[in-house]
Write a structure and sequence with these properties.
Layout: H1 2-6, E1 11-14, H2 21-51, H3 58-75, H4 78-84, E2 91-93, H5 94-127, H6 132-135, H7 138-163, E3 173-174, H8 181-185, H9 193-226, H10 230-258, H11 267-289, H12 292-308
Parallel strand pairs: 1-3
Antiparallel strand pairs: 1-2
């Protein structure tokens, strides 16, 4: 960190999403409403799962943790982005920039692993139902969640340990609304092509391998259910549709941005907004509004709040 500060750059300038003042005011109102919906929706889902004993199952335990990570993922940069819409000069300190990179990869890496854990839970529930309670014990679920966070932290540290020691001696303009690793590394005053390849290979390999593993697990589940009954096939298909939707919309932008050597595409900024702001709202929308058990639990929670007041 000291080497980065001593190299001459103490802050970075963020270009944001638009240079038009009118559009920025519209973005301020839009993203304020959107971010509030993300936080309230996901926290409501967590509170509902915690308060309803019928939802104290491995699937909903993992789902509540997914909601929590979504709140974290949407909070590492979105509040600053919203404030920046009101500012003419959008800057972030060197330390703040490194912190954004760290937390982005912690939360994104943790969510990738948690989605894999959720797919594993569905695989056990559908393909090995008689052994489900023994396999998906409380200890096993807790270990899966702790493992997801640990992998996220290790992945982030592996990205950041080289970045903080790069010499930044002049260019400091980041063409995004937050410090995205590919854009920040390109500002270093040395040839970082090999480092870029290594870091993108790390993130790209993690995203692609997790995505492929998820798709394989879904295929195995569908093949297994198809051999049993058409009714089971319809139920499994409905359940997996929600998972596939979340997985595709989350992994798609990540793979596009981190799946190959550095290239500055116009769509990168839009995709960055998509997986850091839009995707976290999909969790309560897809899993809660389409789930009768969750909706029933929310109604009970509302009734208890009304009666207690």
């Amino acid at each position: 960190m000291d080497q980065g500060n001593n190299s001459g750059v103490t802050e970075f300038v963020l270009h944001g999403l638009s240079g038009s003042r009118e559009i920025q005011l519209f973005y301020f109102a839009f993203f304020t409403l959107f971010y509030s919906s993300i936080v309230l929706g996901n926290l409501l889902l967590v509170l509902t799962i915690i308060s309803e004993p019928a939802l104290h199952t491995p699937m909903y335990f993992l789902l509540s943790n997914l909601s929590f990570i979504d709140v974290c993922l949407s909070s590492f940069a979105t509040p600053k982005m919203i404030v920046d819409f009101l500012l003419e000069h959008k800057t972030i300190s060197f330390e703040g920039c490194m912190a954004q990179i760290f937390f982005l990869h912690v939360f994104a890496g943790g969510e990738m692993m948690l989605l894999v854990a959720m797919a594993y839970d569905r695989y056990v529930a559908i393909c090995r139902p008689l052994h489900y309670a023994a396999i998906m014990s409380v200890r096993k679920c807790t270990g899966l969640v702790v493992g997801c966070w640990a992998i996220g932290v290790l992945h982030s540290v592996s990205q950041l340990v080289f970045t903080v020691n790069l010499p930044f001696c002049g260019p400091n303009k980041v063409d995004s609304f937050f410090c995205d690793l590919p854009l920040v590394i390109k500002l270093a005053c040395i040839d970082t092509y090999v480092l870029q390849i290594l870091m993108l290979s790390d993130s790209g390999l993690m995203a692609v391998s997790s995505f492929v593993l998820l798709l394989i697990s879904y295929v195995v589940i569908l093949v297994t259910v198809r051999r049993r009954s058409s009714a089971g096939m319809a139920k499994a298909r409905a359940t997996l549709t929600a998972h596939v939707t979340v997985v595709t919309l989350f992994f798609g932008p990540c793979i596009f941005i981190y799946g190959w050597p550095f290239g500055n595409f116009p769509a990168d900024k839009v995709l960055s907004v998509f997986y850091t702001v839009f995707t976290p709202l999909l969790n309560p929308l897809i899993y809660a509004l389409r789930n009768k058990e969750v909706l029933s639990a929310m109604r009970k929670l509302k009734s208890r709040q009304v009666s207690s007041s």
